[in-house]
Structure formats: structure tokens, C-alpha cells
Design brief:
Length: 383
């Protein structure tokens, strides 16, 4: 089914769990495709293919290598494998986002599928695999795939700069959503399997030589890609500003979740509160209280400040003592908001010595936060 006509006149088709763009004339292509990738001027089609076989079923290669696998996919789509470049994902083509931005005679169109719930990561995170002799294991899918079509004639070096700007725009979209890495406590910059295809119009009379942020072309790329990435992530996984307005979402990348908070509550009750004849909450009631706190405006605001202190400690922008002092101020502010005078922190006496490593300081900051949330969710006013 033809779903879109680009400003270049090229048709965008959707079939067999794929998006296929057929070129009506000569096009320049720069891509990360495992088949006919890099810079090419002899391609006739580009495509994005959904590899997902179904919920709970692992993606499997149809050939010994990913490159050979993609050659087979191109053939199954009825394409000439020697004249096509393609990328793959586990995101559904039904959740495709297409966004165009124009200025004067120049139009830029971003065609994006995305999902980072499983595979979102931050550049520099621990690796998932090591390649040797062109052989790697199939890695988890959770991919942001971008096909960027520029209706202008760009030399190879400008297309390469467009790829950089496109990647920066994708990362900016993730940062604005505070999407966390699944492999570290950092904010995600993409997924481990992202793919990008840049296409420009060789026949256009409009010659463009700069795709950096200061150029109008760079602006168009940035706006189109950011919009499309955000919409694709929302359509695929529901990720958006509203879903991220959550205390628990803000601290997820630091290993804090409902179960960890509940387990700490059970531990505290058994060790410190049972002898005081304080009634223990059942888990449903405790989680209900936690969810109410989770979406409170003041909870989200103060938690956002709290996690950013840990970010800046990781980045070397705050010293351990500065991070400790800042975290304490925010915790005190949270206690004030909920009218609690005595906190569980006094019982546990967590060591905050300034000679600890960054990892140890972050761990302690996290533990103190969990104690406060346990106290709020458990309705523990005095200790």
C-alpha cells in the first residue's frame, strides 16, 4: 500500500511488515545498512523492516550473518538486493511517524520507527557483544530507525554532516524525554541497534553544502527528526512527557522500582516497627499509596532535582560533598512537604563519609531516597 508521496516524488509503500521507498530518479544515499551501506549513488530503493516474529518470540537470522540475512529480506520484499539498502527493527511499521519541515524550496522528511524500552542505552555503556572475524551474536532489538529524505542536492561531505545532525536530533529527543539507559544509570542517547539512512535528490537544482546546526538545513533536520522520533516512541511504547511525569520513572535508571521499595518496607517493618505494634500495610495498599505519591507534582519536581544531583556527580560537575549536601536539602524538603519530622534515615545511620568513591556515594544517596519513599508510602509518621 502506498502511504505517502515525498516532495521528491518518490513513493513510500508499506507491505510485508516493511516500509519501502522507491526512487523515481537518481538519488544519493548514505546509510548504516549492512547491505550496500556507506555512500552510494546506484541504489533504487531503501527500506525499513520489522523483524519482530511476535510477542515473546526471539528474532532469528535467516542466514549466518546479519548482512546475508538482510540480502534475503530484500529479496523477499521483491527488491533487487544489489540496488537496495535496508535497516531492521522490532518496532511495528504501524507505529511509523512521518514528519516534514520546509523552508523556501527545501523540504526535509523524517520517516521514523522507534522503541528503546528494551535496548535503550547511553554511549559509553558496557558493551553487549564483541565482534571478531565478522561474527556476532544476534542482539536484542529495541531500535530507533530513521530514513531522512532531503529534497536538495548535497555533496558526500554534507550528507555525512547531515547524518551527524540527524543523530544529535535523535539524542536531543531522548534527553528531552529523560529516557533512561537500560545498561547504566545515564540518560539514553539511542539504542544499541539504531539505523539511519540519509537520502538526497541528485536531480535537484538546489545545491546545499552545510547541514550543521547553524544552517537552515540543519535546523530543518533537527526539527523534523525530533518530532518524528518523539511521535514514533509514543506510538510504539507510550513514551511521552505525560508518561514521564512520574517519580518512579525518574529514578528507574538508578535501580529504584516498586518491588525494591516494597521489599525495603517489609525489612523495616520486621526489624524496627513490629515491636511498636504498628500495623503493617498489605502490599496492595502500600503500592496504592506509592502510586499516589508517584504522580504528585511536588514529588516529581523534587525527585527530578534529586536525580540530577547524581547525574552531575557522575559527570564530575559536583563533588561528593556537594552532592551529599544537595541531596540532604532535597530530602528535607520532601519531609516538610509531607509533614514528617523524624525520618527513617536516623535509624539506619547511612554512612556519608566524603572519602567514599562516586559509586558508593550514589548508592548511599539512592538508599536514603528509598527510605524516605518507604516512610511516605507506609504512612510512617514518627520513628
Amino acid at each position: 500500500m502506498m502511504i505517502y508521496t515525498l516532495s521528491t516524488g518518490d513513493k513510500v509503500h508499506k507491505y510485508d511488515k516493511s516500509i519501502v521507498i522507491q526512487f523515481k530518479d537518481d538519488r544519493k544515499v548514505l546509510s548504516t545498512s549492512p547491505i550496500n551501506g556507506g555512500y552510494r549513488e546506484d541504489l533504487k530503493t531503501v527500506f525499513n523492516h520489522d523483524e519482530n516474529p511476535g510477542a515473546g518470540i526471539a528474532c532469528k537470522l535467516k542466514a549466518p550473518t546479519y548482512s546475508e540475512h538482510m540480502y534475503l529480506i530484500a529479496g523477499q520484499l521483491g527488491l533487487n538486493s544489489e540496488e537496495a539498502a535496508g535497516i531492521s527493527t522490532a518496532a511495528s511499521m504501524e507505529n511509523l511517524s512521518i514528519k516534514s519541515e520546509s523552508f523556501d524550496e527545501v523540504t526535509v522528511t523524517a520517516i521514523v520507527t522507534g522503541g528503546i524500552e528494551v535496548n535503550g542505552g547511553r554511549v559509553g555503556d558496557p558493551a553487549s557483544y564483541y565482534e571478531k572475524n565478522c561474527k556476532v551474536e544476534m542482539i536484542k532489538h529495541g531500535t530507533i530507525n530513521i530514513i531522512l529524505v532531503i529534497d536538495g542536492n548535497l555533496p558526500p561531505e554534507t550528507m555525512t554532516r547531515a547524518l551527524v545532525t540527524c543523530t544529535e536530533a535523535k539524542t536531543a529527543a531522548l534527553q528531552e524525554l529523560m529516557a533512561g539507559s537500560n545498561y547504566s544509570r545515564g540518560i539514553a542517547t539511542g539504542s544499541g541497534t539504531d539505523g539511519t539512512i540519509i537520502v538526497c535528490n541528485s536531480k535537484s537544482k538546489i545545491k546545499l553544502t552545510n547541514a550543521g546546526k547553524h544552517s537552515k538545513l540543519g535546523e530543518l533536520i533537527g526539527v523534523a527528526v525530533k518530532k518524528a522520533v518523539k511521535e514514533a516512541l509514543f506510538l510504539q511504547t507510550g513514551l511521552c512527557a505525560e508518561s514521564q511525569h512520574s517519580m518512579l520513572k525518574r529514578v528507574k535508571r538508578f535501580g529504584i522500582d516498586e518491588d525494591k521499595i516494597w521489599n525495603k518496607y517489609e525489612e523495616i517493618y520486621c526489624e524496627y516497627l513490629s515491636e511498636e505494634n504498628k500495623e503493617q500495610l498489605a502490599k496492595p495498599e502500600f503500592i496504592h499509596n506509592l502510586h499516589i505519591i508517584d504522580r504528585r507534582e511536588d514529588s516529581v519536581i523534587l525527585t527530578s532535582l534529586y536525580v540530577h544531583i547524581m547525574d552531575q556527580l557522575d559527570w564530575g560537575l559536583l563533588s561528593s560533598s556537594e552532592a551529599i549536601n544537595g541531596a540532604n536539602e532535597i530530602l528535607n524538603r520532601i519531609l516538610e512537604k509531607f509533614n514528617i519530622e523524624n525520618s527513617l534515615i536516623k535509624i539506619f545511620k547511612l554512612d556519608y563519609s566524603k572519602d567514599k568513591s562516586v559509586e558508593e556515594v550514589v548508592e548511599t544517596i539512592v538508599d536514603r531516597f528509598i527510605l524516605i519513599i518507604v516512610q511516605l508510602s507506609g504512612g510512617i509518621k514518627n520513628v
